[in-house]
Design a protein that fits this description.
Layout: E1 2-8, E2 13-19, E3 24-28, H1 34-44, E4 47-52, H2 64-71, E5 75-77, H3 88-91, E6 109-110, E7 115-119, E8 122-128, E9 137-141, E10 146-150, E11 153-154, E12 157-158, H4 168-179, E13 187-190, E14 196-197, H5 198-204, H6 206-209
Parallel strand pairs: 3-4, 4-5, 5-6, 10-13
Antiparallel strand pairs: 1-2, 2-3, 7-8, 8-9, 9-10, 11-12, 13-14
Protein name: Hydroxyacylglutathione hydrolase
Organism: Jeotgalibacillus soli
EC number: 3.1.2.6
């Protein structure tokens, strides 16, 4: 299995495409610039199976509808943010100057409780990691050794908690209970910035070392 990180839009939000040897793929957090996503899919000859959202902030959902419509695939989101896709005041797009209010059609599927998930040819562990937002989730591909964390954890930093539903202590609890308990050599694929690892953040992240 392979993955690619695609920084998209004015905030350079990381979308991820996870794909296997059969050319099936999952699309994670298509935040903007749908054409860049299409170009990579076409270049590799991939067959998308689903869109997965780590959370429903505007910079992670802007290309959901064009990608969903083109490939006729379902969108998965946590139940706690089911109303956020169509509500700019919840997804945060009303709070930033120069950002058009973003409204996206409802998710097709809601994630069940945390645990093992299978979607098409892919299996992973769903980790509930709220704090940056109420329905934040992470996708842990244990056999492949990486976890996609959205805006929960960054290289040397953590997600902001000043948007609707954000709670700093809940975020820190999610990081410690769900992410820092993973094997230390697990790669961390964040919603912004570069790839890091659990070990790197345990040793050097000032926001979590004192929790």
């Amino acid at each position: 299995m392979e993955w690619i990180q695609l920084p998209l839009g004015p905030l350079q939000t990381n979308a991820y495409i996870i794909y296997n040897s059969d050319r099936k793929c999952l699309i994670i957090d298509p935040g903007e610039e749908a054409q860049k996503i299409r170009q990579f899919i076409q270049k590799k000859g991939l067959q998308p199976q689903a869109i997965l959202l780590t959370h429903a902030h505007f910079d992670h959902i802007g290309a959901v509808d064009p990608i969903r419509q083109e490939y006729r695939i379902p969108v998965y989101l946590h139940q706690a943010e089911k109303k956020w896709l169509s509500d700019p005041s919840l997804n945060g797009s009303t709070f930033f100057a120069g950002i058009q209010p973003i409204e996206v059609d409802s998710a097709d599927k809601v994630f069940p409780q945390s645990g093992e998930i299978s979607i098409g040819d892919f299996s992973f562990t769903l980790l509930e990691t709220p704090g940056h937002s109420p329905g934040g989730v992470s996708f842990y591909f244990h056999k492949e050794g990486f976890v996609i964390v959205g805006d929960t954890l960054f290289e040397g930093s953590i997600g902001r908690t000043d948007l609707p539903g954000g709670k700093e202590q809940e975020l820190l609890k999610s990081i410690h209970n769900e992410l820092l308990t993973l094997p230390e050599d697990t790669y961390v694929l964040p919603g912004h910035g570069g790839v890091t690892s659990i070990a790197q953040e345990m040793d050097h992240n000032p926001f979590i070392n004192g929790f």
